[in-house]
Specification:
heterodimer; A: 407 residues; mainly alpha; Formate dehydrogenase/DMSO reductase fold; 15 helices; disordered N terminus; disordered C terminus; B: 258 residues; alpha+beta; Alpha-Beta Plaits; 2 domains; 3-stranded mixed beta sheet; two-stranded antiparallel sheet; 9 helices; 9 strands; elongated; metal-binding (chain B); iron-sulfur (chain B)
Chain lengths: 407, 258
């Protein structure tokens, strides 16, 4: 842990000195290494094209990057809008301590999604076309507008936090704009989370009936909402270790219960959907799709509900299990819709797709970049709790490492 | 009036003049590896013999008919749907359905998301995976020829009349007449499939034995997402209004959060 390198930069070096720090730990070196490898692959992708760096083909035009970086990235970043809704709109102030970190995770998640998309599309330099050439019949049109606008909104929301430390003059204006940004910043993700599911509704007859349903948008929306608590639990336990900061159990437990409430609704809708469309036979056929479908629901939804509403969720261990299971369930779900759900159709005449090593490297690299950015921002801005980082700064000053402080 | 092409499968002798005409008119490159392939090879490929530079391909199926073995050649290319999924799936309007029938693609508008390829009900779109700046490739139904009252390149060279170009409505009537006269399978593939296509196929051997997607929906695919997209702006505005109301109500008389 003590591979300490401290970076000090003097921005606006007149009277007030702003200091930045970033301690390199072994884990952070690992992240940096993966990120560097990913950047190398990304450069090759831009020079030589998608064929050289991926195993995508005409049967499988969408693969790991779409499912992991985009479908999953957006879903797992769902903790941001959910928390904003609970804390700022519904004013459940109890959860305020996790609000900033959840929203920062969400912001970084979306930046990864946007970067991932730029790498994944064939003509990345044309990314702006849908702003002027409106293909408004396309569900993707909506996803594109909402994701890009929401990313901008999230950056502005973070600026409200950032201006506590730098460019302080802008802080009061941003603070005034916060209510509007929050409301837009909840509306947009509600729309595109559901639309990501609706994308697959156009692929009539190609997706396994276990996943292909008119409820797709509702399922995608609800799961992005309930995975938020799982992500916050995991993130707070990881960040807790890395940054020496723990979120109180009652706060996490409260969130987990809200999330489990959404899970119950999700489960009931799943069952209703199966009854309406008569897919029980498919669900219990015990072939690959059926096993994936059942384990997705059992481990990702039913067991987490039991944990949430039993005494298990009063311990950190129980909470972490809730987080791991919920997040794994949503990961499985997003992969299932594309790979398990479409595999039979897309492979029917001998097609095949296994992601290339380079595809994995890029996906892991983007996550590593997000982790490094999170650690840097959480250490340098007031993210994890009321003026915790300022407090940490004071300690550093006593150590005599810095001549002056931001205060 | 919208144009179309009628493919009378039993009439095709597999000479592949149509493929050559397509290459010449559209100036598609000749690929070494394609030169040695036979129509039987292509019928077994996941790609159906369609590649970025092969917009049409002749596939041969050896089938049983009346306890006799027969060979049937099927010409594959874009079906040119009446209400195409690719057009509706494209978020930057790179695809267009022309009133004369052809569904055309403009690479300068394309972002390269490949949603069209996922959405296409006949899986005919191909991507230039090997290029650094790739586009989607498919049959354009000789849109410039059709606009000038000429027929498509492929039909213009067919020596047996297996593919004929004309008004879609007239071709449909002709197809039904031929089905009756020749005792074909009682189905015009393309009349209703995916809401109808400009290309129509008739056959004396079962379509499902020749890789036709016979279980396909007869509803136009865009109709599956149309209502959702129309409702979205209203849902968005309504939801934002509800949130704003809740925000004001819940924040009344409270200190704002940091």
């Amino acid at each position: 842990m003590e591979l300490v390198t401290t970076v000090v930069s003097k921005a606006g070096a007149k009277k007030s000195t702003v200091k930045w720090k970033f301690k390199m730990t072994p884990m952070r070196w690992v992240f940096t290494g993966i990120a560097a490898a990913a950047i190398a692959v990304i450069l090759v992708r831009f020079v030589l094209g998608l064929g050289a760096t991926t195993n995508l083909n005409d049967q499988w035009p969408w693969g790991l990057w779409i499912s992991f970086d985009v479908l999953l990235g957006v879903a797992l970043a769902g903790g941001g809008y959910g928390t904003a809704l609970i804390v700022y709109v519904l004013r459940r102030d109890k959860f305020y301590p996790i609000a900033r970190s959840a929203m920062l995770t969400s912001l970084l998640g979306y930046i990864v999604v946007v970067l991932g998309l730029l790498i994944e599309v064939g003509q990345w330099f044309n990314f702006w076309r849908p702003y002027v050439s409106w293909g408004h019949a396309s569900v993707l049109f909506e996803v594109f507008w909402c994701i890009s606008c929401y990313t901008v909104i999230q950056i502005l929301e973070f600026c409200e936090v950032g201006t506590e430390k730098v460019f302080k003059g802008a802080h009061k204006y941003l603070k005034k704009a916060m209510p509007v940004m929050l409301i837009i910043g909840i509306t947009l993700p509600t729309l595109h989370q559901s639309s990501l599911g609706q994308l697959f509704y156009l692929m009539v007859g190609k997706v396994n009936p276990l996943w292909w349903t008119a409820f797709l948008p509702v399922f995608f929306l609800l799961s992005s909402f309930f995975v938020g608590a799982g992500m916050i639990v995991i993130e707070s336990s990881l960040a807790g270790k890395a940054l020496n900061h723990k979120v109180e159990i009652p706060v996490l437990r409260g969130l987990v219960k809200i999330s489990a409430g959404a899970m119950i609704l999700y489960l009931m809708l799943k069952i209703t959907d199966m009854v309406v469309r008569g897919t029980f036979a498919n669900a219990f056929a015990f072939d690959l799709p059926s096993i994936m479908f059942l384990s997705e629901l059992t481990f990702g939804v039913i067991i987490p509900i039991i944990i949430a509403f039993s005494s298990l969720s009063s311990t950190r261990k129980g909470l972490i299990w809730f987080g791991i299971l919920t997040v794994s369930g949503v990961i499985m779900n997003r992969f299932d819709v594309l790979f398990t759900g479409m595999g039979k159709y897309l492979n029917q005449y001998g097609g095949s797709y296994v992601p290339a090593v380079s595809e994995f490297i890029v996906s892991l690299g983007l996550v590593s970049i997000a982790c490094l950015a999170y650690l840097f921002l959480a250490e340098n801005f007031n993210i994890l709790g009321n003026h915790e980082s300022e407090h940490a700064d004071d300690i550093e000053i006593k150590d005599g490492k810095y001549a002056s402080t931001a205060k | 009036m919208a144009k179309g092409v009628l493919v009378d499968i039993p009439k095709c002798i597999g000479c592949e003049s149509c493929s050559v005409a397509c290459k010449l008119w559209n100036e598609l490159e000749w690929d070494e590896q394609e030169k040695n392939k036979t129509a039987i090879d292509r019928a077994k490929e996941p790609n159906n013999g369609l590649w970025p530079e092969e917009w049409t391909s002749i596939n041969r199926y050896d089938l049983e008919k009346d306890s006799e073995s027969v060979a049937r050649y099927v010409k594959t290319q874009c079906m040119h749907c009446e209400d195409p999924a690719c057009v509706s799936s494209c978020f930057s309007k790179a695809f267009q359905k022309l009133p004369e029938g052809p569904v055309i693609y403009d690479q300068s508008l394309c972002v390269g998301c490949r949603y069209c390829m996922m959405a296409c009900p006949f899986d005919v779109l191909r991507y230039e995976w090997k290029k650094a700046i790739p586009g989607v490739r498919k049959c354009q139904m000789c849109a410039t020829r059709v606009a000038n009252n000429q027929e498509t390149a492929c039909t213009s060279v067919c020596p047996t009349g297996a593919i004929i170009f004309g008004d879609r409505e007239e071709l449909l009537a002709e197809a039904k007449k031929r089905i009756k006269e020749n005792g074909y399978v009682d189905r015009v593939f393309g009349e209703k499939e995916a809401g109808g296509t400009s290309w129509l196929y008739i056959s004396d051997t079962p379509f499902e034995q020749m890789r036709f997607r016979t279980d396909i929906t007869s509803k136009p695919l865009p109709s599956y997402t149309e209502g959702y997209m129309k409702a979205t702006p209203f849902v968005g505005v309504g939801w934002a209004a509800i949130l704003a109301g809740l925000y004001v109500y819940n924040n009344k008389g409270k200190e704002p959060l940091d």
